[in-house]
């Protein structure tokens, strides 16, 4: 699968990682797509001091088993405190094993070593506004040099992918036909929203995407779209008005699944240069 292979997106992640290190990244805070917790207003934060990695289909273990994960226990505690102060029922989870949606990206971004990283869960109700507010709650971490990442997908419907080339030839990038109309349509709307809205307008436009007529075609389940809500919260404050997202890379796989890589904001804006 894409997270394990060379791709334009993987090259871009490496570039982001290099840039983060060059700017003295203090830590990484990530919301993925595969970990959700149950209960109204609940959110969990990874506090496992020695997290294992859950295995991933279609990626050879040699690509990830030896990579050392570095959990940011201090940062996790900060996240719990900030989220609690904003009314979330937030708690640490010291048993959580990291999942490929986050660790495979860290491996690509930081092949020389993982910076201190905190993983945030989703809430299983998949409320877009809830996840946007999680991002808003943690937005100020950016000013301290934390990199906030949401990892999911612009178009991600496993039921509508073309699996045959993957299963027969291990070729996830094969496109025997173009992506279907519903996938192209929704992918374009995601790009339009992120590149043409900023500040609180971005938050409103992102959450509104879940009412898009093609949303359910593009996402059979809501889990892979929640991270985009988190990002809109984290990069959609009043102070972010005028800072538009940029589409920096994109990789389609399994014909209909679109992985678009957006960046909102930059280091020079959010992190004061070191004296
Ligand atoms: Fe996934």
Which structural traits does this protein have?
275 residues, three-stranded parallel beta sheet, binds fe (ii) ion, Extradiol ring-cleavage dioxygenase class III enzyme subunit B domain-containing protein, Extradiol_dOase_DODA
Helix content: 25-40%
Radius of gyration, in angstroms, nearest whole number: 18 Å
CATH topology: Protocatechuate 4,5-dioxygenase, Chain B
CATH homology group: LigB-like
Cofactor: Zn(2+)
GO molecular function, one term: ferrous iron binding
Keywords: Metal-binding, Oxidoreductase, Zinc
Family: Belongs to the DODA-type extradiol aromatic ring-opening dioxygenase family.
Topology summary:
Blueprint: H1 8-22, E1 27-37, E2 42-46, H2 73-85, E3 89-93, H3 100-109, E4 117-123, H4 128-138, E5 146-150, H5 164-169, H6 181-196, H7 200-208, H8 215-218, H9 226-234, E6 246-253, E7 257-263, H10 267-270
Helix pairs in contact: 1-3, 4-9, 7-9
This protein binds fe (ii) ion.
Explained architecture:
This protein is α/β, with parallel strands linked by helices and 275 residues long. The protein has one domain: Protocatechuate 4,5-dioxygenase, Chain B. Helix content is 35%, strand content 17%. It has ten helices and seven strands. α1 (8-22) crosses α3 and α7 (200-208) runs antiparallel to α9 (226-234). The N and C termini lie far apart (42 Å). Bound molecules: fe (ii) ion (FE2). Fe (ii) ion binds next to β1.
Give a nutshell description of this structure:
The chain is an alpha/beta fold.
